[in-house]
Amino acid sequence: MKRRIQFPVKGSFYYSADMAMDLSLLHPDEPLKFQLEPDNIYDQNAVQIWLPKSVQACFEVNDSNEDAVISHGLLLGYVPRTLAPKITFYIRHQDSLEVTVRRCARLGKQIEIDCQVTINQAWLHYLNLMIHATIVTQLHRLKRFKQRLFFK
Questions:
Q1: Which site among 39, 43, 53, 63 is 20 to 30 Å from 92 CA-CA?
Q2: What residue stretches are annotated with the HIRAN domain (predicted)?
């Protein structure tokens, strides 16, 4: 049975999310792709989140960020570290995962992107992943709320 999990994209400030927002490439239900990064020195379970869009349009607008734009499209950020091992398992053991943009917004210099993953999973494993993703999402929202409240 297909089930949906929603979580925030981490690190969007450091990658090409700003460029994608400027080019109006991010919309709700926009398809995304996962890319495993096992050679990441900080997290061997790191999972990149890519927006598979035309690279030519990105090079015409901004040539200074060429290292972030490769054949995959635009690197938006990463799956949160605590969810990465579970998402890595699903990437390796399922034929395809449907990943889409759920919500995207610019808040000052920060860009918030929530993505949604559709997985084919039994209830018990789904419940575990859903609870974990909900906790990560709520902690992310609390952090953003505190930043807006105290650092205006």
A1: 53
A2: 4-117
Kindly compute the dihedral angle of the four CA atoms of residues 96, 76, 47, 79, in this order, to the nearest 10 degrees.
-100
Q: What's the pLDDT tens digit per position in 94-142?
A: 766 888 889 888 877 778 888 999 888 777 777 888 888 888 888 888 8
Task: Name 62's Cβ contacts closer than 8 Å, sequence gap at least 6.
Answer: 19
**Distance between CA 36 and CA 140 in Å, rounded?**
22
Q: For the segment 40-51, what is each residue's pLDDT rounded down to a tens digit?
A: 888 899 999 988
Are 86 and 62 in contact by the 8 Å Cβ rule? The answer is no
Q: What's the 3-state SS for the chain?
A: CEEEEEEECECHHHCCHHHHHHCCCCCCCCEEEEEECCCCCCCCCCEEEEECCCHHHHHHHCCCCHHHEECCEEEEEECCCCCHHHHHHHHHHCCCCEEEEEEEEEECCEEEEEEEEEEECCHHHHHHHHHHHHHHHHHHHHHHHHHHHHCC
